[in-house]
Every structure is written in C-alpha cells, then in structure tokens.
Design goal:
384 residues, 13 helices, 10 strands, 16% strand, binds flavin-adenine dinucleotide
Length: 384
C-alpha cells in the first residue's frame, strides 16, 4: 500500500504538478533550462517553506511534510532538484545562526524573496574527504577574504545566498581534522563578478550544477554562521534532513516508474496479448514494488526519528541507500518493459532514468554509506 501521510499536502502538490506535465520537463531538459515557472508556483503555494517556523513566515511543519512534497513532485514525473535545497539549506541558519541573522534572512527565504539554495562543500581535490577542503577564508578586520575552488555546486546561478564551507585554520594547525572549518553566508548578488566566478557544468541531467572560483572574494565577518572553526559540525547537522528528503524523491521516482511500467504492461499488446500477462514482465515490476515499499518504510522510520529529535544519522543514510537503489531498479525495469519506446524522449522514462541515477552518487555515494554502517553500526575496523 502506498503511504498516506499528509494526504492534503500530497493532493495539493499533485494538483500543482499536473500543470507541469512531461512536455514541460522535456523541453527544459533538452536545453538544460531552469524550471523557473515550476519553482515560482511551488514558492507561491508555500511548499518550499514548510520547515520554516511560523514566527519567520513558514508553515512550521515537520520533516514528513517536506518528504510528502518532494515524493509527490517526483511521482508526477517532475524533479525537485531545482529547488529542494530551498526547503532545507536554511536549517543551518535556523539552528546555528544568530537571532539577527534569523530575523534578517528567514522571513525572506520563507516568502521566496531570497533564494537560499546553494550549498558549497565539495571541492575537486578533496572529494568525499571533506576535511581536505582547501578553500580558505582569511580574516582581515571585519571581513573574510576567500580564495579557492568548489565543484558540483548546484543552483549557484539561481541563489541569492550560499552556505559556504571554508577552512579558517589550515588542517595541519587544527586540533582535529574536522576542526578549523567555518560556514559563511555568501551574498551571490554582490559576489558574482567581484571575486566569485560561476562556471556551469553540463551533465547528463538538467541539474544547474556549477564550478565556483573564489579570487579574493570579500565577505563581511557578520556573515559567519555560529562559531569560527565549528563549520564542519554545522554542515554534518544538516545532512540528515538532506538525505531523508532525497530518499523521499527516490521513492517518488520509484512510484513513477511503477505507475508507468504497470500501465504500459497492461496496454501494450504483443503476440496477441498484453505483455503484462507474462510473468517475465510481472515479476520485475512486483519486485520493484516490494523494494520501493520497503525503502519507503525506512524513509518513514528515519523521518519519525528526525521529527522526534532522536539521533538518526544511520537511519537517514540507510534510507537514502535503499531508496536510491530501489528507484534505480524500478527505472531499469520500467525502461526494459517499454522496449524501444523506453528510449524515446516523449515517454519521459529515459529522462527520469537518467535523473534517478544521480542519487547513488550524491549527496553521498553508496560506498560511503556502507562504510559508515560497517564501522559505526557493525564495529568493523575503519578503512580510512
Ligand atoms: C549533479 C550533482 C550535484 C551536486 N550538488 C552538490 C552541491 O550542491 N553541493 C556540494 O557541495 N556538492 C554537490 N555534489 C557533490 C556530491 O556530493 C559528490 O559528487 C559526492 O559526494 C561524491 O563525491 P565525489 O564526486 O568527490 O566522489 P569521490 O569522493 O571522488 O569518490 C569517487 C568514488 O569512489 C568511491 N570511494 C571514495 N572513497 C572510498 C572509500 N574509502 N571506500 C570505498 N569507496 C570509496 C565513492 O563511493 C565514489 O563512488 C553534487 C554532485 C553532482 C554529481
């Protein structure tokens, strides 16, 4: 059975998404264009501010509401990647920002007047080993001067603010490798052309991802979030929400492939009968349903722990791993069931197939999750 949490939200999101059919997404995909109209519609309907407390103009709902929004977007054939970070990136300001920063930014993020949906962590030479980042913010009076490079920073061209992780103490001088990093809010409207260069990267999906170059970018010291040197811990704090929400998108993708695959298997006639009459076609769909349903339970479990303020790092990771693998299996089977038509753009299967593949790599790759489970849950020796 599909899950039924937040039925009103799901229904409203599904209604909104019906205004943005496959044709809309296909057109944008072809030319790698940002879905501005879709993002504006979600903003106006309040779906991107569900996690912002009411005192700052949001709806103050729990994470489950946001999972419902993203799952439904993906189930409809759309893609939340263009704006999902607007839902959760503000968590860094909410949890660790000063009262002034919260009052200044959160109401504008809630209204959509400010886009805070760029999140700058990954660097070309550090990869997943975040403690090796080298983008450096040097304090000079009441400013920080930033030099370095980031890669895969999504939505940088569509953000007014970016949460940026930099070193403020060189790794070798920090007490622990994870110390000495800080989070700065970068105002992209002032930064671009004044020390920040954005270079878009064309990828196999329409994801508005970019490379960033910092050359003496000057940022006011008042844009530091929390304490200097604690940034890595603040970023880690936000990762559980991100992983759970991405997992919900994968569940939506999985259900999209199941809906489409089942419908096609019933309708497509070969050898004088629907292909869905063959168990060779039924079983992969049934298996995909089992996998998506099991992964959805894990997403619900991680969400419930998150909402109850319980530790949920392992569960968030496991949910992301299971959901990304379930959606990929469903994608592969759905493509197979469509035969040659699976490759035709107009069916949207090949687009969604490409899109859902991302989530086994980002925001964290499968191997790194397995390594976390092996060492943190099973107590196996650390391999790195
Ligand atoms: C489209 C897209 C959008 C993204 N958006 C953002 C964003 O907005 N902000 C941001 O900061 N980052 C973003 N990322 C970066 C993303 O988080 C990273 O790509 C991801 O975490 C993997 O890191 P990496 O690419 O550096 O891979 P690497 O760390 O180089 O790893 C390469 C491969 O080796 C494996 N591997 C590495 N070390 C080990 C080990 N010890 N044991 C076993 N296997 C290992 C990994 O699992 C992986 O499969 C995005 C990436 C993509 C592709």
């Amino acid at each position: 059975m599909d899950h039924v949490s937040h039925p009103e939200i799901r229904e409203a999101v599904a209604r909104l998404c019906a205004r943005f059919p496959g044709e809309y997404w296909r057109g944008l995909d072809r030319d790698r264009i940002y879905p501005t109209e879709f993002v504006n519609a979600l903003t106006e309907a309040g779906f991107l501010s569900v996690l912002i407390p009411e005192e700052y103009g949001g709806s103050g709902l729990g994470l489950g509401a946001a999972t419902a929004v993203l799952e439904e977007i993906h189930r409809s054939g759309g893609n939340g990647g263009a704006c999902h970070a607007q839902i959760y990136t503000m968590g860094c300001v909410l949890r660790h920002g000063s009262p002034e920063q919260k009052a200044r930014y959160l109401p504008c993020v809630a209204s959509g007047e400010i886009r805070l949906q760029a999140f700058g962590v990954t660097e070309p030479t550090a990869g997943t080993d975040t403690t090796r980042i080298s983008t450096f913010a040097r304090r000079e009076g009441d400013r920080y001067i930033i030099n370095g490079q980031k890669i895969w920073i999504s939505r940088a061209e569509h953000s007014d603010l970016m949460v940026l992780l930099c070193r403020t103490t060189p790794r070798e001088e920090a007490k622990r490798a994870s110390d000495g990093m800080s989070v700065l809010l970068v105002d992209m409207r002032e930064a671009v052309g004044n020390g920040l260069t954005i270079r878009p990267i064309r990828t196999m999906i329409n994801h508005a991802t970019t490379e960033l170059f910092f050359d003496d970018l000057s940022v006011p010291a008042e844009n530091l979030i929390g304490e200097e040197g604690r940034g890595f811990h603040y970023i880690l704090d936000g990762m559980n929400a991100e992983r759970i929400l991405i997992a919900a998108e994968c569940i939506g993708d999985g259900r999209f492939f199941l809906d489409r695959g089942s419908a096609y298997a019933k309708e497509r006639q070969v050898f004088g009968r629907p292909i869905g009459e063959n168990q060779g076609v039924q079983f992969p769909l049934a298996r995909a349903h089992v996998q998506v349903s099991a992964a959805a339970l894990m997403v619900d479990h991680a969400t419930a722990l998150f909402e109850a303020d319980q530790p949920c790092g392992t569960e968030a990771n496991m949910a992301k791993l299971l959901a990304s693998e379930a959606s990929w299996y469903a994608a592969d089977q759905c493509l197979q069931i469509h035969g040659g038509f699976g490759f035709a753009e107009e069916y949207d299967i090949e687009r969604k197939f490409r899109e859902t593949r991302l989530y086994q790599v980002a925001p964290i790759s499968t191997n790194l999750i397995l390594s976390h489970v092996a060492t943190h849950v099973l107590g196996l020796p650390k391999s790195f």
